[in-house]
Amino acid sequence: MSIHLPTAYLIAGLLYLVMPLGVWLSLRRQRSATIHWWCIGGVIFGLSLILLGSREQLPDWLTHVVANTFLFLGVALRVIALRHALGRPLHWVWLLAGAVIFALVYEFFHGVLHNEQLRFIWGSGITAALLLHLAWLAFAIDRRDNSPSARWVAAVYLALGLVLAMRSMVVLLNMSQAGALNDDILTMLMVFLGVLSAIVGNIGFMGVFLERLTRQTGQLAMAQARNEESVRLSHQIAQLDRRRSVGEIAASLAHELSQPLTNIYLIAERAHLEVEKAGVQSVGKYLGDIERNTQNAVDILNRIRKFIQSKESQFERVSLNQVVKDIMDLTNDWILKEAVDVSLHLPAQAVWVMGDPVQLSQILMNICRNAIQATQGQAYRHIDLRIWREGNLAHLSIRDNGMGLTPEVLAQVSTAFFSTKSDGLGVGLSISKSIATHHGGSLTISNAPQGGAEVHLILPALA
Ligand code: ADP
Questions:
Q1: What residue ranges are annotated as transmembrane (predicted)?
Q2: d(CA 397, CA 375)
Q3: Which residues sit opposite 456 in a β-bridge?
Q4: Is 238 within the bounds of a domain?
Q5: 306 and 428 co-located in one domain
Q6: N or C terminus of the chain: which is more exposed, having fewer CB within 10 Å?
């Protein structure tokens, strides 16, 4: 055979010393226990290969028991690294105990039994088992993260482990001599795989981290996009809420003012007739002005009412489950801050309705806000939100464990501008009710039998 085994061991050893340093430096921004154990393991493994390659120059104890224990430690540290990456950490005491037992048994075969064959089989057999375990852990990372780099690490250590296992087997069957520097095809293949594993193993390991970094960056971008979307939706809802509030105020003002204005007009008309009958022309002119201006005011109010009533909404197929999820995302921080326990009961199959998703979100936002506020002051704050379908109807109910509604509140609760809160506008429920009606459904609020209030939204369901 043409290759000089000690030199090949030295090359593999040096590679094992240098490559982990490269890994260490490249991954300096993401240092973790996994990287520390992996790199230290690599360096110790490299030292052991250099010792094995220097068998002709160095004393026997250094190139046998020390070199083999280092070999064990190097692979075991890498096993610990990958177990850590998989969330199955192993305490370093096991490593220490394992190394001591390994070295004692190794020396027992040599010093007590004087059996070099058993000593070799023990050393290479245990190392092969560890290498195969290492490959299995790398495969587990590949399965979990779908990582091609982990697959490479697994493949190279699987090959190395299998060849070392075969070499132990061959020695066990007396088909070859024991010894790390035995000039046979399996030893050469092993050293070749040692060199390859130094390169592929370390680059693959680095790849696992870089792939994870790329994935995390992608996930971060997606989370940011989701966040921006929910901020946009909440702005949209808030704006719609304001616009609707202003609309409701204007509609109510228009309604309330048109009656007294009509009265003023009629009174002015009557006074005009009386004054004309009495022949006081100068006053009649002013009364005519009052009539005209009052009529103008009534016309303006009517135009405002018409404008408010003719607002277009965008109807589409909407999943009530999705509306609930969106609002839960939006209110999540608030719910956490207020320490309210929300139980969601959403059917596995989405309940679909025809409607304007933003308006439906607005209903949910209003009633969620009321429910959260209603539970203030309770030791345990709880909201139960459920959706279900019954025949052609979609149901959504929110029940809270607040104080519920007194009969007086219940009598006026859905009237515009009725509020029992110091900072309440009193339009949330009436807006929600008018949206529900606009969607061909209904919204009711009542006291739940278990206590607290229950808001029940019913809408026509889609197939
Ligand atoms: P606001 O929240 O601005 O007061 P709403 O129209 O949403 O306006 O609610 C009107 C009133 O209905 C509230 O002030 C409150 O008295 C009562 N209310 C609404 N929801 C609840 C609830 N879940 N529990 C008890 N009272 C409620």
A1: 6-25, 37-55, 61-80, 92-109, 121-140, 152-173, 185-210
A2: 16
A3: 397, 444
A4: no
A5: no
A6: C
Distance 459 CA to ligand 1 centre (A): 21
290: exposed, middle or buried (C-beta count within 10 Å: 0-12, 13-18, 19+)? middle
State the average pLDDT over residues 304-326.
78
pLDDT, average across residues 422-430: 83
Closest atom of ligand 1 to CA, residue 367: 20
- The pLDDT, as a whole number, for residue 391 is 94
Pocket test of ligand 1: the residue of 342, 413, 446 to mutate, having most ligand atoms within 8 Å of its CB, is 413
Q: Are residues 164 and 119 both part of a single domain? A: yes
Does residue 441 lie in a domain region?
A: yes
| Residue 234: inside a domain | no
Q: What is the mean pLDDT of residues 122-131?
A: 96
Contact 313, 362 (CB under 8 A): no
Query: Is the pLDDT at 136 greater than 80, yes or no?
Result: yes
CA 376 to ligand 1 center in whole angstroms: 13
- Is residue 310 predicted with pLDDT exceeding 60? no
pLDDT of residue 239: 65
Residues flanking ligand 1, CB < 6 Å: 366, 370-371, 374, 400, 402, 405, 409, 413, 418-421, 424-430, 453
Instruction: Mark out the alpha helices in 281-406 (DSSP H runs).
Output: 281-309, 320-338, 357-374
Residue 87 · residue 141 · CB < 8 Å: no
Q: Check pLDDT > 70 for residue 307.
A: no
pLDDT at 1 over 60: no
| Mean pLDDT value across residues 188-214 | 92
Checking if the pLDDT of 260 tops 60, the result is yes
CA of 420 to the centre of ligand 1 (A): 7
Q: Are residues 300 and 166 in the same domain?
A: no
Q: How many CB atoms lie within 10 A of CB 435?
A: 23
Domain range for 308 is 245-312
- Give yes or no: residues 253 and 353 share one domain: no
Structure tokens at 104: 């004692």
Q: Mean pLDDT over all residues of the chain?
A: 89
Q: Do the domain assignments include residue 119?
A: yes
DSSP of 158-184, one letter per residue? HHHHHHHHHHHHHHHTTSS---TT--S
The pLDDT tens digits for 148-194 are 999 999 999 999 999 999 999 999 999 988 888 888 889 999 999 99
- If you average pLDDT over residues 73-97, what whole number do you get? 93
Is there a contact between 69 and 104 (Cβ–Cβ < 8 Å)? Answer: no
- Both 27 and 110 in a single domain? yes
How far is Cα 439 from Cα 394, in angstroms, rounded to an integer?
12
Q: How far is the CA of 157 from the centre of ligand 1 (A)?
A: 67
Whether residue 336 sits in one domain with residue 299: no
